[in-house]
């Protein structure tokens, strides 16, 4: 009862007022402390944000690795020997005994052209020759007779000058010269007729077209009944068929002018053919054109903005049996190899303005203009510093480093846009990787 009376002891009005004031002050202290804590937290967050402004980059260490430099170019499959068959005369095609894909031997019949008019021309030429030979025989006989008459006149003149007058002797001499000239003319007519006969027979022989090589018919551009015409102004106009020797297969590719200087005869190449997607064929460079490819409408002289390409032939070592000309192919020619080269990612190499460091003891000219240099950003103490480098051959993903870096140096290796926009002496930090979500989680 005593405890209860003490706990429930009634307070005076002054005590209540005092207690209320104490509680108000306590509440103010709590609120003020909370505001201070929030302010301190905000300052901490702001400071952390300022420290977190470093650019995120992908870092990679300079390392040694095998390197293979290649030149890749696209082109088409071609046969080493391909002969386009065209007509040298005009005539209707009456026979085509072969089809595309047939194998032929040298001398086999390919196309026969109607020979009626050319047979008639041969017969006419033979008749002209016979007539010319007959005329020549008659002319020789007249010449011989005129020679005998002249000889008799000379003999009589020597026997008795009064038997043959000067006028008679002169006439006999003139008649002999005329007869001799006619005989020579007749001989020339014979030669001309013989040449005409040879020409007519040659035209007749051209009505039969035979294979000039052993090979395969890879194109037949005409049908029986069509008229064959000489391709005087256009190769395609006179094309009748194509015979190809497929024992040696090549890839004819077009290489850019910046790459062709790196190629050499005998360089090895890996060839992929679109028709054989799962197979890579080996080959070697067997021809490099010395002049650029001329396109229609391209100027022959002067500067031009057109791309300049060169023809390069790669001969396949073991082509497939069922290969065909004009198939699309890609050749990857190996131009250089390194067993252990100091390398950097291709994406890491960039260009910046840089003032070369002088090795002289004299004070440097600070007004000297900066020059653009190739280099990379080396990371030291969280700061990216641009450093010029000298590179060698280029592989598919890496450059060979000849000077400017050492193995183990940490460099900025991406992303691409970050490397292009990065400035010297920028603070950087490793690129954050987003963890992959479990399958099915959203």
**N-to-C CA distance:** 67 Å
Largest sheet strand order:
3-10-13-12-11-14
Gyration radius, to the nearest Å? 50 Å
How many helical stretches?
Answer: 7
Alpha-beta classification: alpha+beta
Structure description:
With 442 residues, this protein is α+β, with helices and mostly antiparallel strands. Helices cover 32% and strands 36% of the residues. The protein starts with a helix and ends in a 12-residue tail after the last strand. It is built from seven helices and 21 strands. Helix 3 runs antiparallel to helix 4. The chain has helices spanning 2-7, 13-51, 116-159, 166-205, 235-238, 257-260, 416-421, and strands at 55-57, 59-61, 63-86, 91-95, 103-104, 109-113, 208-210, 215-220, 227-228, 239-256, 268-273, 276-292, 309-316, 328-345, 350-354, 371-380, 383-388, 390-394, 398-403, 410-412, 426-430. Mean pLDDT is 83; it is low at 1-14, 16-21 and 26-51.
Task: List the keywords.
single chain, 442 residues, alpha+beta
């Amino acid at each position: 009862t005593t405890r209860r009376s003490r706990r429930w002891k009634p307070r005076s009005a002054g005590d209540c007022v005092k207690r209320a004031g104490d509680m108000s002050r306590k509440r103010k202290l709590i609120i003020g402390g909370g505001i201070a804590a929030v302010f301190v937290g905000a300052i901490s967050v702001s400071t952390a944000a300022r420290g977190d402004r470093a650019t995120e980059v992908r870092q990679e260490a300079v390392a040694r690795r095998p390197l293979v430099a290649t030149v890749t170019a696209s082109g088409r499959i071609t046969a080493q020997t391909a002969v386009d068959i065209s007509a040298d005369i005009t005539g209707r095609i009456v026979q085509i005994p072969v089809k595309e894909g047939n194998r032929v031997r040298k001398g086999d019949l390919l196309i026969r052209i109607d020979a009626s008019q050319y047979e008639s021309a041969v017969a006419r030429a033979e008749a002209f020759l016979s007539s010319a030979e007959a005329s020549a025989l008659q002319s020789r006989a007249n010449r011989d007779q005129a020679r005998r008459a002249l000889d008799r006149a000379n003999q009589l003149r020597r026997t008795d000058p009064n038997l043959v007058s000067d006028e008679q002797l002169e006439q006999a001499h003139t008649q002999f010269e005329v007869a001799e000239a006619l005989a020579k003319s007749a001989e020339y007519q014979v030669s001309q007729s013989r040449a005409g006969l040879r020409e007519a027979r040659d035209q007749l022989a051209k009505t039969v077209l035979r294979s000039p090589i052993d090979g395969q018919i890879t194109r037949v551009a005409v049908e029986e009944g069509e008229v064959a015409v000489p391709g005087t102004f256009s190769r395609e106009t006179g094309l009748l068929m194509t015979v190809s020797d497929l024992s040696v297969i090549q890839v004819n590719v077009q290489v850019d002018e910046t790459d062709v200087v790196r190629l050499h005869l005998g360089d090895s190449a890996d060839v992929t053919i679109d028709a054989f997607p799962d197979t890579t064929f080996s080959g070697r460079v067997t021809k490099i054109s010395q002049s650029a490819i001329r396109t229609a409408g391209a100027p022959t002289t002067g500067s031009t903005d057109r791309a300049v390409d060169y023809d390069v032939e790669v001969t396949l070592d073991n082509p497939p049996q069922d290969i065909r000309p004009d198939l699309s192919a890609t050749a990857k020619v190996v131009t250089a190899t390194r067993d252990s080269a100091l390398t950097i990612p291709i994406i890491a190499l960039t260009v910046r303005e840089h003032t070369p460091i002088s090795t002289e003891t004299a004070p440097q000219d600070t007004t000297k203009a900066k020059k653009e240099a190739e280099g990379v950003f080396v990371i030291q103490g969280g700061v990216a510093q641009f450093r010029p480098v000298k590179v060698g051959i280029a592989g598919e993903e890496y450059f060979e480093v000849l000077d400017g870096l050492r193995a183990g140096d940490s460099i900025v290796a991406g992303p691409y846009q970050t490397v292009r926009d990065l400035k010297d002496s920028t603070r950087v930090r490793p690129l954050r990787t987003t963890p992959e979500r479990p399958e099915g989680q959203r």
